[in-house]
Amino acid sequence: MAKCKFCDKENYIKLKSPNMYLCKEYFVEYFENRVKKSIEKYKMLNKDEKILVAVSGGKDGHAAAWVLKKLGYNIELFHINLGIKDFSEISLETVKKLAEKLEVPLHVVNLKDITGKTMEDVRGKKCSICGTTKRYLMNKFGYENGFDVIVTGHNLDDEVSFILNNILNWNIRYLAKHEPVLPAHDKFLKKVKIFFEIEEELILKYAEAEGIPFTTAKCRFAEKAITLKHRAYFNELEKERPNIKYQFLSGYMKNRHLFKVEDENFQFRECEVCGMTSAGRICSFCRVWKLYKKKK
């Protein structure tokens, strides 16, 4: 069996780019250095900021919280209990284990307490509504509780599948938003993706190497998500053309200015129901959960 490039220990992983074997210890060091470089490259974070890390129970958000704590950032955890049978309870227990190991505060919001419903009660495109719900609730909580930035566990695989999906549908406005850092404006906090250039496979190996608690339970509502099929395309392409995911993302970053849309008449405003920043009279969260009816 091949040995680690830097020592005589048994290899833990074979990297594709650069092409080399690493033992567990050197891989952890390599991974954390990549995160450091991404943070510096895109000027993502500084040590004075109060950071809210979104965690759902899965490896990505948990690894993001773990590595940021190790790198000395001021983090707290945020979790949404969506009320999904055979999923949400497992996720919450795993998040609690993570908070205990990291010795950081954990904030849990129950969707039912806010909307009177859970994701089980939703009809239609559950994944789309879930995404809208998560973005809104973590931003609202962060804004109301004095946080400076929100960190999510979105990774390279997520980004390339989202970009491809938006290209196939020519969603120009969405294509302009795939950036590692979205700056703050109005009541929207700064949002950061520290794994923007890091593959999902490496995040999994890091989480396993560090013994990070996470669940492999899958949300049954996400099984038919089109982005999962896009991920499968890229995984097949990667076998024939190693590093194609990173090349695709790099090409997007070089040409993302092509998707910038300037609308001189467009203005953000406050949602008439909740008061948060909105593109219309009523924000997407209040619309999908029909909170405007409750207000009336």
Task: Quickly list its features.
single chain; 296 residues; alpha/beta; Rossmann fold; 2 domains; six-stranded mixed beta sheet; globular
CATH class annotation of the largest domain: Alpha Beta
- Number of beta strands: 10
**Reading side by side through the largest sheet, how are the strands ordered?**
5-4-3-6-8-7
- Class per helix and strand makeup: alpha/beta
What is the mean predicted local confidence, pLDDT?
A: 93
Distance, first to last CA:
69 Å
- What summary fits the major beta sheet? 6 strands, mixed
Write a structural description.
The strands form three sheets. The chain has a six-stranded mixed sheet with strand order 5-4-3-6-8-7, with helices on both faces. It has 296 residues and is of the alpha/beta class. The model has no long low-confidence stretch (mean pLDDT 93). The chain has twelve helices and ten strands. Helix 1 (24-41) crosses helix 8 and helix 6 packs across helix 9 (226-240). The chain is globular.
Topology of this structure?
Elements: E1 13-15, E2 20-22, H1 24-41, E3 50-54, H2 59-70, E4 74-81, H3 88-102, E5 106-110, H4 111-115, H5 126-144, E6 149-155, H6 156-168, H7 172-175, E7 181-182, E8 190-195, H8 200-210, H9 226-240, H10 244-255, E9 269-270, E10 277-278, H11 284-288, H12 291-295
Parallel strand pairs: 3-4, 3-6, 4-5, 6-8
Antiparallel strand pairs: 1-2, 7-8, 9-10
Helix pairs in contact: 1-8, 2-8, 6-9, 6-10
